[in-house]
Amino acid sequence: MAALSLGKYMKYELVLFDADGTLFDFDKASEEALKKALLLFNIDKWNADTWKIYKKINKQIWDEFELKQISAAELKPERFRRFFSAISVTEVDPKEFSDKYLLFLSQGTYLIDGAEELVEWCYDKFKLGIITNGLTSVQKPRFNQSVLHKYFEHYIISEEIGFAKPQPEIFDYSFEKFRHTDKNSAIIIGDNLTSDIKGGIDYGIDTCWFNTSGASENSIIPTYEIDNLAKLKNILLG
Q1: What residues are labeled active site?
Q2: Chain-centre distance for alpha carbon 222
């Protein structure tokens, strides 16, 4: 575990990061995995519109997952059933395609600009964790292969523990893993308002919305908002 040599001078002790869209460039990893899977199954459908269709379907199904309308096991083939229906593919088994896509996705360790520098800076100042709504077979290999692996004490993966953000149970689990009890000295940083930010707000900890799209939101109010990871340093220093 990192030494907390500066902890008594700082507002925060426990810093929880979302993974995809916050530290990891999930869009790039997903796009590459989808291209490879389509090529493997001889589906000549790749273009910009196909990618937009997949992203829309994928977002919808993960929203359903966060609302507990679909399980992680059901999610894996179901998103490709919907995707194949949308692009008129009938000859490929969605489960087989999903298995290959997830294998390729697990190899994608692309990072958001500034992620490695930020996490390295945080390492000897805070207790660091990743808390992600993801699939264990995808996230574990990506995290273990990533240059960020050495900086984090714990990775909390929703499928592995049976709870997902914004459910309070995943935050309970995280606090127990870190043996941390003070909500006032914890913060979560993430790009997703409904899972990361609402989850943190409902749990009673500070939140930082990583908003790179310039979106505006009136109903969910984070403690902080940034559009560049480098800006997080001043927030964490208090």
Answers
A1: 18
A2: 17
